[in-house]
């Protein structure tokens, strides 16, 4: 018996799924099964059969999903709105920079330095305080061109309306169709007193940033723009601290705008802005070029201040003997020089030669003005060393282009 039992191995049990019943039509394979197949779901149970039950609804899983979608949507909407209210200073400067000009003038009060914005038809808007009692006015565009302008009139809000001479070929500002959202960022695009164009973010209408500390007096007359660089206002006032923004709705945007009256005038000995100037160097900044720059900057500053006694100190002893403060006053009594560039510098033993280009404003009734208000000059200077300083010993005009509008 034991041997017979060892020879006949027991057959493995049939693996029958627990869900199987005797009435199943599907026959199970005979022999050892190693895979359990899932029960086939009946698609159509036929007459009298009950429909399959729907999946069980579990609100505890759906509710967090709904909350997540709502939060995500709200966050996305907030981000889109925040982006539409913010601005990029670089983009603003690219779009608005070409239409912003530097306004320079000789006036009875020496206040003629500001910013301005160009409109179609050769119109320029700036701050009245910069051109009060004007004698000669010009604008310097972003591309370095100088244009003579006349004062068409002023408004009670302190906005001056200028008309630019010459071709109307400069880019002009785009006026925003309406004021931006009170929560939207705004910016001023103008020039500082050194002549550098800058963009300054000034906050929102609801939360403005004080302008003092952000910009200097050169920004008076600067346009306020939205995130697309479109005109929405203009900075006016006597000073930056007391300045105010005139909204686009109150600006004289058309030639026939109401509220523009003639600017007051009077007879005076005009002078230009009183801020210091320094020539740019278009040559290598060598020690000699630095000395030349210092000497010619001192000459230009005394010229613009109309301090003709101090101007005599920038001359050599030989030149002082041939001139006087009275002679200089007769020649330069209404002059204002700007945009100076030292083009050439060369040594001549202990002396030096230099060529400098610049633009000068003056009264059209001044000596040798010939009815013009500005000229573009190229002057060659000879400088000698006295008391360890370079001083002007002589000068000659190489180029004199009368009329700044001839660009």
TrEMBL record:
Highest taxon in the source lineage: Bacteria
Residue ranges with Polar residues bias: 264-273
Keyword RNA-binding applies: no
Organism in which the protein naturally occurs: Kribbella italica
InterPro entries referenced in this protein's UniProt entry, alphabetically: Peptidase_S1_PA (IPR009003)
Name of the protein described by the UniProt record: Serine protease
Spans annotated as Disordered: 1-54, 252-278
Transmembrane segments: 61-80
Sorted UniProt keywords: Membrane, Transmembrane, Transmembrane helix
Basic and acidic residues composition-biased segments: 1-11
